[in-house]
Automatic annotation (TrEMBL):
Subcellular location: Cell inner membrane; Cell membrane
GO biological process: amino acid transport
Family membership: Belongs to the binding-protein-dependent transport system permease family. HisMQ subfamily.
Record-annotated membrane-spanning stretches: 29-53, 74-103, 194-213
GO molecular function: transmembrane transporter activity
Keyword Transmembrane helix on entry: yes
Protein name (Swiss-Prot/TrEMBL): Amino acid ABC transporter permease
């Protein structure tokens, strides 16, 4: 038992590694603040485009969404960071993360929001248009607010996954939390920094998990 505690829960190593773990946690928070809004913005664009019935929009959009949902985000990030410079496009580490998450998570957010838009009764759209609102105003003021409310648990659940997915930014040398924990582990030859990073993720995300559970229970109660 002593060996287990010393290997995974060594408080002295936590104290020694905390400065770089704190730097990693700050980077993770900054990454989350960047990629979540970018993904949501991409999702809104795709969801709104999905309401266009023209086959010239519908089929290219379907190919786009399916492609970036199917591609592993890690592969996509490496390609953007290391592959594009070969054709003269160097966006840097932060640019690669922004573009990669826009493409990948935007596709997932887009599908969730599309389902939300489709859940809004058609009569709401027609009623809004009859008052003189343009299509864009109807979408912004009438349809999207209801769509977001209808799929809010799914949006929050996807956001949780996006925050955890920021750990792949380490492949382009961005010092997020898990990257810094692995660095500390390689120096201390101890798994405690990894466990400390896991605890930090738990503290960061547990309130959101509880919020998600409450929303899901409320939504379930409303259906009964």
């Amino acid at each position: 038992m002593d060996i287990f505690l010393d290997t995974f829960f060594n408080w002295q190593i936590v104290q020694e590694a905390w400065p770089i773990l704190w730097q990693g946690l700050q980077a993770t928070l900054l990454l989350s603040a960047l990629v979540v809004p970018i993904g949501v913005a991409g999702g809104i664009i795709l969801a709104v485009l999905a309401t266009v019935h023209s086959p010239w929009v519908k089929w290219p959009l379907r190919v786009w969404v399916d492609t970036f949902r199917a591609l592993p985000p890690l592969v996509l990030l490496v390609f953007i960071f290391a592959g594009l410079p070969f054709i003269g496009i160097d966006v840097g580490a932060w640019g690669a993360v922004a573009i990669g998450f826009f493409l990948n998570t935007g596709a997932y957010y887009g599908e969730i929001l599309r389902a939300g838009i489709e859940s809004v009764p058609r009569g709401q759209l027609e009623a809004a248009r009859s008052t003189g609102l343009t299509r864009g105003q109807t979408m912004a003021y009438v349809v999207l607010p209801q769509a977001v409310r209808n799929v809010l648990p799914d949006l929050i659940s996807n956001t949780l996954e996006v925050v955890k997915l920021t750990s792949i930014a380490s492949v382009v040398a961005l010092p997020e939390l898990l990257f810094q924990a692995r660095q500390a582990q390689s120096v201390t030859y101890n798994a405690t920094p990894i466990m400390a990073a896991a605890v930090a993720y738990f503290v960061l995300l547990w309130p959101v998990v509880r919020l998600l559970s409450r929303l899901e229970n409320r939504q379930l109660a409303g259906r009964q």
